[in-house]
Specification:
The chain is α+β, with helices and mostly antiparallel strands. Helix content is 26%, strand content 40%. It is built from four helices and nine strands.
Length: 182
């Protein structure tokens, strides 16, 4: 993760066979089935944390399109990707998505010991590719643990994907996203 250019980052391509997409991830990430990941979850965290993550995964699996999970056992980082029906993404859409994310996190903070802090939100339109990125820090006030959630929505080449990366530390995943082949 210390690379200074896209060409320098170390990782591997993973082919998403249902969608013809190649994602690029650090070498430590392994692909899991939903069932395999849920079994892995049972050995991590408290019962409440595991239930929260299972609900999140169920909501992601229920979205139209394909769903893939990658996990890094070394750091506990999770990478999920949903393929969605193609939707061009405009600046107004990105603003709406950000307001929906904020509202969702606000509701979630009322029902849990979690607080959410937006660190960044950005929209980029290169003409051939539209990218919305948001990064939040999630603090568990009871356990004094924090995690970082990065969300990317990318529309390009008649494909749309939603990526969520959850890590125990803040990480800039942009160079890995740049190496993705839609």
């Amino acid at each position: 993760m210390e690379a200074t250019s896209v060409e320098e980052i170390e990782g591997n391509y993973h082919y998403l066979e249902n969608d013809g997409i190649k994602i690029y991830l650090p070498e430590v990430f392994e692909r899991y089935s939903s069932v395999g990941y849920q079994q892995l979850l049972d050995s991590f965290g408290t019962k409440k944390e595991v239930e929260f993550e299972k609900k999140r995964l169920k909501a992601l699996r229920d979205i139209e399109g394909s769903f893939y999970i990658y996990f890094d056992k070394e750091t506990g980082a999770t990478y999920t990707i949903n393929t969605l029906p193609y939707t061009p993404l405009r600046r107004e859409d990105a603003q709406y998505l950000l307001s929906m994310i904020n509202a969702s996190y606000k509701r979630s903070s009322h029902d849990s010991d979690l607080s959410y802090t937006k660190l960044t939100a950005k929209y980029n339109d290169s003409g051939s590719q539209n990218i919305f990125r948001s990064i939040y820090r999630i603090d568990n006030q009871k356990t004094n643990i924090q995690v970082f959630n990065s969300s990317y929505i990318i529309s390009s080449k008649s494909k749309t994907v939603w990526i969520q990366i959850t890590t125990p530390f803040e990480v800039d995943f942009d160079m890995f996203i740049q190496k993705m082949i839609l």
